[in-house]
Amino acid sequence: MPALLTAANLTKRYGETTVVDDVSLTLHRGETLGLVGESGSGKSTLARLLLRLLEPTSGTVTLHNPAVAGFAGPALDLLTLPARDLRRLRRRLAIVFQDPYAALNPRLTIEQTLREPFAIHRERPAEGISARLLTLLDEVGLPAAALSRYPHEFSGGQRQRINIARALALRPDLLVLDEPVSALDVSVAAQVINLLRDLQQRHGLTMLFISHSMPLVRYLCDRILVLHRGRLIESGTWHEVCHTPRDPYTQQLLAATPNLPV
Fold first, then answer.
1. Is residue 92 a contact partner of residue 173, using CB atoms and an 8 Å limit?
2. What is the pLDDT of residue 262?
3. For 138-158, what is the mean pLDDT?
4. pLDDT at position 71, please?
């Protein structure tokens, strides 16, 4: 598949501390790319660099053939875009954060939450916003009655489904999932992972899935990147990385992570 996003030599330093160290990667359209590593390895920082939620110390991030009117040419350098153009482009890039509780405004109903992306980007889907909201809820397995309720009325797994629905509202080119099930218990996490797999297959989504769990990444992802102390130390298909790991750190991850029932 053609490339959707490429990063070259991305580095992020805070003073003398290097959090992301000379990382290069390619994310292809329609694939689920797994980024795995222990806590503190730089996974979340790398994801934010790719979306330009953080500014890198050095390196480039290129988005190929973005489906946004007004952007000419086959590729865009995200790191040199002025703020106005970057704001317009954000509708094509979505993220689901780790904490399903903190990611939702407790003062807004679910309908207000799901309407926000359309208001911010001044978009109106062809079928109408109300119809689009009902479709989103149906796709993540929630009833239409959820629209009038508030976040505190839902479980953690249901809140993460709402976060996923909001991220998919504008049909983004790229969906970044930053450890989306690490705050959930095992059975609920399995349901959310299966939902993501179903959505990817149904819509051909391009996803970057971040996790510290090799079994989850193995189950969901087409390719896997292993990050250790800010550096990419291994990459390949899930079969290559999980069955014939080359780096000792990858071998340790596989040996130390229990299998999950997914």
1. yes
2. 35
3. 96
4. 67
